[in-house]
Amino acid sequence: MNFIQNIGAKTLAFIQTLGANVLFLIKICCLLPQTLLRPRLTLRQMYFSGVLSVLIIAVSGLFVGMVLGLQGYTQLAKFKSADVLGFMVAASLLRELGPVLAAILFASSAGGAMTSEIGLMKTTEQLEAMNVMAVNPVARVVAPRFWAGVLSMPLLANIFNVAGIYGGYLVGVEWLGLDAGVYWSHMQNNMTWSYDVANGLIKSLCFGMAVALIAVYQGFHCVPTAEGILRASTRTVVSSALTVLALDFILTAFMFVN
């Protein structure tokens, strides 16, 4: 009986948290006109959350592409079809690995930073001071960070994809000796905008919304202590990773399974 009660309590807690996140998202969306009137706040947050994450995204994408190129060549060489290595690397990155890994890396770096920053502002009572001065802290602090994360995620995913494809080129062409023209031609002839590129962009946009929402929600509702900020940042990274993987399964089922 206690086991069943625990399952029921955790299920209700999950539903309540999910509902609270949705209501918080609606509140942020309703404040979009105010956010558009102050674009500098969003652009500044795009620099902190997007530009400062480019290095780790690009380097990770390069090594992932190199691993895909090496493993793909090893497997394809058995069937004497290594010429399609470029298509295999590009398809793996654009459809799955690029958006997913970029989102997880974004959650680990920028997402945790968002949560810690907002949580610190709450701990030092800066958010309460904004309320006293008749300034909406959600519009001033939360919304710009949320939209910055949403806009940055597709750009970072594309950087990850480009670096990964180049990594596959380095391994397949420069190291293993495949023909460069064959590598690029198979990729160009078999990849399509509507099926591969556009679906990957849609995935990265959805992942960006999920990660940014979790990050700002955890920071805004964290316990205003040092331990509370630490736990909120940890929840942001863990919850974002699980949410991205779950969303990836759902979106893949709708996009690529006929």
Question: Would you kindly provide a written description of the structure presented here, covering whatever features stand out?
Answer:
The chain has 258 residues and is mainly alpha-helical. It has one domain. It has helices at residues 2-30, 32-37, 39-49, 54-78, 85-123, 126-132, 137-175, 180-190, 193-220, 226-255. It is elongated and about 65 Å long. It starts with a helix and ends with a helix. Belongs to the MlaE permease family.
Per-chain topology:
Elements: H1 2-30, H2 32-37, H3 39-49, H4 54-78, H5 85-123, H6 126-132, H7 137-175, H8 180-190, H9 193-220, H10 226-255
GO molecular function, one term: phospholipid transporter activity
Subunit structure: The complex is composed of two ATP-binding proteins (MlaF), two transmembrane proteins (MlaE), two cytoplasmic solute-binding proteins (MlaB) and six periplasmic solute-binding proteins (MlaD).
Membrane topology: Multi-pass membrane protein
Mean pLDDT: 86
Sketch the topology as an H/E string, one letter per element.
HHHHHHHHHH
Instruction: Find the structural class using helix and strand composition.
Output: mainly alpha
Fraction of residues in helices?
Answer: over 70%
What is the CA–CA distance across the termini?
Answer: 43 Å
Number of domains: 1
Largest sheet: none
